[in-house]
Amino acid sequence: MTELENIPGSGNEGRVTKKDILEYVGNRSKGGQAPSAKTQEAAASQQQSANIINVPAQVRSAEPAQMTTYSGNVEIIEMDRMRKLIAEHMVRSKHTSPHVTSFTEADVTNLVMWRDKVKKDFEKREGTKITFTPLFVEAIVKCIKKFPLINSSLDGDRIIVKKDIHIGMATALPSGNLIVPVIKNADQLNLVGLAKQVNNLADNARNGKLKADDTQGGTFTMTNVGTFGSLMGTPIINQPQVAILAVGAIKKRPVVVETPHGDSIAIRHMMYLSMSYDHRIVDGSLGATFLTAVAKELENFNADRDV
Fold first, then answer.
1. Which has more confidence, 297 or 18?
2. Is residue 89 a part of any domain in this protein?
3. Which among 41, 127, 218, 276 could bridge 101 via Cys, Cβ 3.0 to 4.6 Å?
4. Do residues 12 and 127 both lie within one domain?
């Protein structure tokens, strides 16, 4: 009975005729079984699905991409290779590291006064300018020695604490792009050595003379958002590092100053600092403590120091 139900009917309203039975028996005797209408339909559907799933990748990719239309008066600019690499790195960093950013401010009046006092003699004697950057790097290096976990990276479930201190310094290029040359073994350089390294790397970066090794191996990065007038920023970590510190513009502001005779209002040179860090490794307590330590190093700068 089951076999009879499989015979496709050609009669009125799908009834099975004598002719249908004879054709079915004849086909079976030849080693084949006539497929039912349902079987044929299922097979056709299955083949259609297979054709969709198994379209070769090269054929699919050859299909023309749909062009996005933009309303209004626009200019379309294709990203150059460096901008594409920067974009990819920024997205990867945000996907890799859960970012947390802490903020503080520092009274850098002593540092500003010292630099104003020595910059002419420094350039005359050393043949290079003394900017704020080497002073910031010097303070960062001192604090990394106190909090070495800041100078680390993550490899799976292992924290790799770097004994060498290589400070990356974000540098803007004339093209508008950004590059991060690295001051190698910054902890082994005095202030004069840091100043020369900072200026050489910055000049080479802007003139397109950096070597591949000049941007490799950084263990911690500093960016000066104050160069462009920003008071503070929320920088993105330079992978595979775990922290990046941003310094803002130095501004004169009236602040409360504690004196032996009580509080008073004074005009001071103030600067905001911010640090983004990888919360997988650096907790808020460590991040804030390190950032505050850097601020204190800058505040306690000896204005009578010799170069």
1. 297
2. no
3. 276
4. no
Same domain, 148 and 286: yes
Q: What is the pLDDT of residues 196-240, one digit of tens each?
A: 999 999 999 999 999 999 999 999 999 999 999 999 999 999 999
Specify the pLDDT at position 46: 44
Q: Are strands 171-172 and 178-179 parallel, antiparallel or unpaired?
A: antiparallel
| pLDDT given at position 152 | 98
Q: Is residue 72 part of a domain?
A: no
Question: 112 with 209, same domain?
Answer: yes
Residue span of the structural domain in which 51 resides: 2-61
187, 269, 283, 304: which one is catalytic? 283
Q: How far is CA 24 from CA 4, 37, 124, in A?
A: 9, 13, 107
CATH at 119: 3.30.559.10
116 is catalytic: no
Which tops the pLDDT comparison, 3 or 38?
3
Q: Where are the alpha helices (DSSP H) in 16-165?
A: 18-29, 37-53, 57-61, 81-96, 109-126, 132-146
> Can you state the angle between helices 191-206 and 109-126, rounded to 10 degrees?
80
User: Has 279 been annotated as catalytic?
Assistant: yes
Active-site pick, 20, 157, 279, 304: 279
Indicate whether 16 and 130 sit together in one domain.
no
Could you report the per-residue pLDDT of 137-187, keeping only the tens digit for each? 999 999 999 999 999 999 999 999 999 999 999 999 998 889 999 999 999
Q: Is residue 280 part of a domain?
A: yes
H-helix or E-strand containing 169? strand 167-169
Cα–Cα dist 67/153, whole Å = 41
HSE toward the beta carbon, residue 232, CA cutoff 13 A = 14
Looking at the structure, do residues 156 and 240 belong to the same domain, yes or no? yes
Tokens of 24: 């079915």
pTM: 0.76
Kindly state whether residue 287 falls inside one of the protein's structural domains.
yes
Between CA 234 and CA 94 the distance in angstroms is 12
Which pLDDT value is given to residue 50? 38
